[in-house]
């Protein structure tokens, strides 16, 4: 296993240990305060790797810009993932 693979595995295991279960009866966004724990973790890691404009919205959405490593005319890529889990 490469160092990169070990880092990915370490991060995945760390992420899945965070309780992000949503509350279907909650009127708030996110539906539980603990859902923000993973979002805050992601914010810290994005800042650590040098991302810019890192923001955690009131709704628990993490936004960031990762600068290009080349001057080539390449498209902008957006990544999206849910960090909450359903109670079922």
Structure description:
This protein has one domain. The protein has a two-stranded antiparallel sheet. The relative contact order is 0.18. It is α+β, with helices and mostly antiparallel strands. It has two helices and two strands. The model has no long low-confidence stretch (mean pLDDT 88). It is globular.
Question: What Rg, in angstroms, do the CA atoms define?
Answer: 15 Å
Strand segment tally: 2
Which blocks of ≥5 consecutive residues have pLDDT under 50? none
Average pLDDT works out at 88
The dominant shape is globular
Q: Work out the helicity level.
A: 25-40%
How are helices and strands ordered from N to C? HHEE
**How many domains is the backbone divided into?**
1
End-to-end separation? 34 Å
Sheet having the most strands: 2 strands, antiparallel
Q: Widest sheet: strand order?
A: 1-2
Structural class label: alpha+beta
Number of helices in the DSSP assignment: 2
Comma- or semicolon-separated keywords:
88 residues, alpha+beta, two-stranded antiparallel sheet, 32% helix, globular
Quick structural gist:
This protein is an alpha+beta fold.
Describe the SSE topology:
Elements lengths: L2 H14 L18 H14 L3 E5 L5 E4 L23
